[in-house]
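Reopening this ticket.

The earlier resolution said the output was attached, but the attachment link was broken on my side. Pasting everything inline this time so it's all in one place.
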Amino acid sequence: MAEGSKGQAFLDRFAEVSARIGNQIHLRTLRDAFATIMPLYILAGLAVLVSQVVMPMVLTGDALTSAQVWGAAISLGTLNFAAIILAGVLGYCFAVNKRFENAIACVVVGISAFVIMMPQTIVATVGNAVYATSASDKTAATVSYAVDSFAGSLNMPDGYALTGVDATGAFAATNTGANGLFGAIIIALLAATLFIKLSSLDKLKVNLGEGVPPAVADSFNVMIPMLLTLAVFGLGAAVLAALGTDLLTLIATGIAAPLKGLMNAGPWAVIVIYTFANLLFCLGIHQSTISGVLAEPILTMLIIDNMATFASGQPVPQDHYMNMQIINSFALIGGSGCTLALLLDTFLFSKSKSSKEVAKLAILPGLFNINEPVIYGYPVVFNLPLMIPFVLVPDLLIAATYGLTCAGLIAPCVVQVPWTTPPVLSALLATAGDWRAGVWQVIEIAGAMAIYLPFIKVSERAARKQMELGEKGSKAADVHTLDKTSKGSVKAA
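Inline output:
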């Protein structure tokens, strides 16, 4: 009895700590922000898929080049601008979570602070040298020359080649796109935190009195806090520039690279996180409380990198094989715990009428990876036999899929597709049409069914015993009640 109480106390403590982590305001803001802009990444993935896979099947030459402008334009407005968009959304979500009245002001602060911290001079890749006018003819048409044609006149040392030039008045896609996401997260959250803190000081508010339009009054109320916040970030940018660096570079090398490396140093870090996340789901707390704040943002950045790499026609590096799409398409088939296999086993092998009724209701949502009816209706929650495969199966599928990708037996995921995409189709889309990925997903489902089946049998056997014990207890209670009633009747007589 003491061991049971200790085990329950541990589970309760685990759930409490996990809930606190998931509800930490900055982590919750990060999860909410990525959920908000997820449609942009899905659109970018579909545009890349159509532009790089579908269009070359039906078009060639100039027609193909012209048509691919559509996909390039969408990539420019989504993937290449993702960090700036995220900075604004983070500011808004943080304000909402803090219940700050002027949430739109946090959007302005988040974007502005992020741009302030960008380097003012970037190295631009050298293309052609463009001459807009002629010294003697101001109406002359633009003339373009390959850099190689005059690079020799620059007196470069032997063995050197001209590869880039310093440019001002421009943004680097490295900072505004996927590689700038970590910088956007840190800077936007810091800026919004400081801004809201300063806005809470009454001495910094400018009260224009009554009769002023609300938008104007709100703007003046936060004017001084906004000025001070952005001035602080401007000072930081100036100090770092004097040291020959910038904050985005420091974040990319000191924080982003190690975290991405941790996620891709084999599948082990991801497996550990999803083990705890799915165990938490078995205790009734949604797994995104853990995975949504510790793993998904980093894994999402990796698939965004892959989409940009694939769109440019470059091979995906092995250190990006582990990403969010491997989880969604290959490890959570039917939802957390790969419960589509549980439903299929129930239809084929279960003798429990109640389980079959739940399966009938849950199979259609399950095909679209929505499995709350299974989690709480079957149930999986607090069902010890089913908790084991629910946690174990996704871990095995993560490791196996990563291994097959590294071995070259299936293509890496290069497209982020909606998490509600049904099985097989999701594998084909995520890997840009690799049929082997679709076959592997079918094998995964069959393997998951084999793992779930004995635990389903144990679960049903335990349920029958509980029912029998309940019936025996009910009969004993009825006999006891009848005995007391009869004794009372004898006394009355």
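Reporter confirms the inline version is readable. Residues 110 and 190 are 9 Å apart (CA to CA). The chain has three domains: 24-120+172-256, 127-162, 264-487.
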